[in-house]
Predict the 3D structure of the following.
Amino acid sequence: MPGAIYAEGLVKTFGDVRALDGVDLDVPEGTVLGLLGPNGAGKTTTVRVLTTLLQPDSGSAVVAGIDVLKRPNEVRRSIGLSGQFAAVDEYLTGRENLQMVGQLYQMSARDAKARAAALLERFNLADAADRPAKTYSGGMRRRLDLAAALVVSPPVMFMDEPTTGLDPRNRQALWEVIEELVDGGTTLLLTTQYLEEADRLAHDICVVDHGRVIARGTADQLKAQTGGERVEVVVHASEQISPAREVLAGFGKGEVAVAAHTRKLTVPVTGGAKLLAEVIRELDARGVEIDDIGLRRPTLDDVFISLTGHAADADADAYTEPEGEPETGADGAAQQKEAVK
Ligand SMILES: Nc1ncnc2c1ncn2[C@@H]1O[C@H](COP(=O)(O)OP(=O)(O)OP(=O)(O)O)[C@@H](O)[C@H]1O
Ligand SMILES: [Mg+2]
């Protein structure tokens, strides 16, 4: 039986760009699927198709048992989507916004009020609850948007990078809310650039690249696939990346991955501490000064690097920091509006 979110052969092209090139998904009811992938991989496009905001060129999808292409209106009533900044009224206060959402979903005024208060507390918005949303900072807006998506707990939820731009405390708060939702039976598809987040929340992970699912499994399965130990070296200066790469290539059991901006090199190895000592001696002999070196077991970051050839965080930093998160949100809303038209 197909899961609460099911997709088969989704293809979507934008001019020459094949944003989705045959995406298949199957998310069992009550579980969390983490959709990972580098920038431009097709994550948001997948979410937009599954939430009826965008028509695929081909393929099919069923969400909460309803055909997405044939009965989009019914699908919309059965899902929650975060990232809909359009739903937040700038002139209403945070509290009024949340109460309004509750009433739209036919909650009694009393229930809507209680739910709004609980969510405001949860997302550390209680102090700002009675100020108009237009006075909120970027991070506060993002939290209000998330809270709005959580007023009712629909059976299936989609969250596109829900914690991008949130500080650690608020990220933690959102994780707790998500865990409660899922305990309550909600099925969730979430995209994220934070692999730690996927590791903690997702039962299953799909890694997408160039519009295709290139790997899937639990975090543990993907880590096991990626292999065993790795040596990770942070060199002191950029000029030393190249000699360090040569040294590591000599010891490695696979390709040396380089994150230039952090001067970090990673290579799969076998041989444990003894090998590590040899690597250190050889780096020293080549005059490479190291800031840090260690033997590590695979993390989801390693999985990501080995599958896509580059680090998730490196991409996230490069793309999200200059823009700041309020803009990311505004873009999302604009795109969604456009798609609804
Ligand atoms: N409306 C659009 N018009 C043209 N091209 C688009 C449009 N939406 C997406 N694309 C292209 O489709 C590809 C997939 O984009 P998508 O937004 O799904 O990536 P993503 O995985 O969400 O990336 P990110 O991590 O940066 O959010 C990209 O090459 C993007 O430029
Ligand atoms: Mg995206």
About this structure: Confidence is low (pLDDT under 50) at residues 314-341. The chain has 13 helices and 14 strands. The longest strand covers residues 17-27.
